[in-house]
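Quick question, first post here. What does this chain look like in 3D?
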Amino acid sequence: MTMNPTQPMPPTPPYTLYTFAMSHYSEKIRWTLDASGIAYREVCLTPVFHLLPALTMGKRGQTTLPVLKTPHGSIQDSPRILQWLREHHGPMALMPAAHLPEIEDVAKRFDAIGKDVARYLYAHSFGSGDEHIKRLWTDHAAPAQAAFIRRAYPLIQWAFRRKLNITAAGAARAHQRIGQAVDWLDTRLADGRTYLVGGQLSTADLTAASLLAPLACPSEHPVYGDPTFRQTMAGAAAPWQVRPSMAWVRQMYARHRGAMHGGVALSPKAA
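> Answer (accepted):
Ran it through. Tokens below.
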């Protein structure tokens, strides 16, 4: 489609969300922005090459994503981003004041297992799923970045193992903590409720569903729903696939996520 040069260019969204495409924490914020109708563009960064931008924008000595860049500054870390959104876009339907303490308690419970989910899945896919991981890590990379990731992959994998404590013992502890969270969610859903707090969709639901999505593999997610991802992670995710919690995650995606629409995924080069 060719744009008529006499037509004004569409306005640039005021916010830019810096993410990893496969990050469940990034998905939590992406989904919150989409569901709240808040305009933004998304820039998917490449592992390793994200380090300097994250340090520079976050100004907190951390290299984590997501980072939300706004006209008022940049906010790093998903709970801090949610707090900022509530303060600057409130009242928000996803964070009703009457239920906010309980919503935040549920969100903290699932935020706490985010690293465990990553640790557990990498522990089961490093080695057998290396080619798929390389593809995921380079999907939004510039050509030179992709070439570097592939050449340096053994060293990067070693660094990931150290940073995430990806050992047999670490994976076993992650399995236990994920199981505890899934048990809690199964119990919460046992009364037939659809939403975790207050009878309506909230960031409690979005957090729980996003953080468990790499295990539930909902078809609406372009990474977790990809057949190759599902096949690569099938063995690791098998212990929980028939649990009510995983069915609930897929239901939340089918009912409320649909096609991801709010962000425009760009490589750093295109940005």
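Confidence is low (pLDDT under 50) at residues 262-271.
The longest helix spans residues 168-189.
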